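FAQ: What does the model actually see?

It sees only this:
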Amino acid sequence: MNKSISIARGFVLLNAIIWLAFSIIVATGMHPALPDSVFYKWFLAISAFVSAAFLLLLYFLLKNQSKIAFFLTITFLILIALLTMMDDLGWIDFLVLVVTLIPVVILIKEREWFLKTSRTSQR
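And it is asked to produce this:
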């Protein structure tokens, strides 16, 4: 695994940490801008927690040169980026957007490492 892949995995892990922190902030009621709906608060907290868990899984799967992990990671991070842009884009949202898109760019740049066939990678 080259350095670029390690950096991309590090950003995926950072994304997982961000979403875990966000789920805790929402679940504990510390987020100042959420509506008073208990259902909305818990839906958001659980969704963020599940996202963090999935990103953590992808972090480990990317180490194994998995094509499925490659495509799932890019798809999931782009989905997160699109959802982030649908919110009121403040400076924190912009920072999260950048942290989300950096691994997408790196993974696309290094796609050959993931998309090699088994015969090619054994040489």
